[in-house]
Amino acid sequence: MTSAADPLLQLRGLSVRYASAGREVRAVDHIDLDLAVHECLGVVGESGSGKTQLLLALLGLCSSAARLAGSIRYRGEELLGAPPARLQALRGRRIAMVFQEPMSALNPYLTVGTQLTEGARRHLQLGRRAARARAAELLATVQIDAPAERLRQHPHELSGGMRQRVMIAMALMCDPEILLLDEPTTALDVTVQAQVLELLHAVRARTGAAILFVTHDLGALASLADRVAVMYAGRLVEQASAPALYTSPRHPYTAGLLRSLPRLDLPVPARLPAIPGQPPDLAELGAGCAFAPRCPLVHDRCASSPPLRALPEARSVACHFEGTAAQIAGAWA
Ligand code: SF4
């Protein structure tokens, strides 16, 4: 039994691990996250930080070699270890995902219409005509012109931006409560990125779906997310409301990511500053803070892994440095 105050989706201690050449890869490591009804939660981090594995775990789509632990609750119902038939009934119907690469996520042999209508025919038992009418309506909603004609086309006949719109329309076909977005703007040029973000705003306003938006680009999240969670090396290192995170980051990694974004209020530098170094090998994580080799504030205590500690205003951070946001930003200067 759930109450209105319960989160729609609740992750507790979620871990995804793989064995690789005799080593253990900790792709996702003890993640706690909540997604409320109608909320947009952004999850940000560099490639390899575990963001996509987190989304795949929610839908039961990790590879069979993965070992999952912890808890994933949807409206109070435990999904980790749920029967495949139950997960299949939820996928696309209650929780839908927009995959990262529309060209590889769409089947090149099937028409757009066949792919768009498949889920609605299965989950909503719509007949062919009704499903195509709904598909055409959704293509119009995502601002694709001549929808009836597009339904007869194959993915290669559409531009990258149109394919991404088709993916979004497909995810909306069964009116899901939760939309999982995996880097929905990454493969697009800047102008189309802006159009897709605008479209996501409209979709959110129109459907009221809760959104879990995974990206490496803090800039893409800025206008859409209510809260932002930052992942590094499979772990959650900071979580805050979007305004608090963008204006006063409390983790050096978050501050480094923000510093690498172009600013409209400053002259454009010849080169944007990047965080030095590379993310760690997830099979070689030691006992200390995983960000230590790249951190300008590293000190003795960082030889032990910092726990996620609560801060005022429903924020949390995993860092031994307890200074102010200004001191953290200053360390990157
Ligand atoms: S725990 Fe230490 S190394 Fe890790 S982010 Fe904080 S200051 Fe940097």
Could you walk me through the main structural features you see in this protein, from its secondary elements to its overall organization?
A hairpin with a 2-residue loop joins strand 1 and strand 2. Helix content is 32%, strand content 22%. It starts with 8 loop residues before the first strand and ends with a helix. The protein has 333 residues and is α/β, with parallel strands linked by helices. The strands form 2 sheets. An 8-stranded mixed β-sheet has the order 6-7-8-3-9-10-12-11, sandwiched between helices. A 4-stranded antiparallel β-sheet has the order 2-1-4-5. The longest helix is centred in the middle third of the chain and has 18 residues. It contains 12 helices and 12 strands. The radius of gyration is 21 Å and the shape is globular. The chain has 2 domains: 172 residues, Rossmann fold (3-Layer(aba) Sandwich), CATH 3.40.50; 74 residues, no CATH class. The chain binds iron/sulfur cluster. Iron/sulfur cluster binds next to loops. The site of iron/sulfur cluster has 12 residues, from loops.
Q: Distance between termini?
A: 51 Å
Low-confidence stretches: none
Largest sheet features: 8 strands, mixed
CATH class value of the largest domain: Alpha Beta
- Principal-axes geometry comes out as globular
Key traits:
333 residues; alpha/beta; Rossmann fold; 2 domains; eight-stranded mixed beta sheet; four-stranded antiparallel beta sheet; 12 helices; 12 strands; globular; binds iron/sulfur cluster
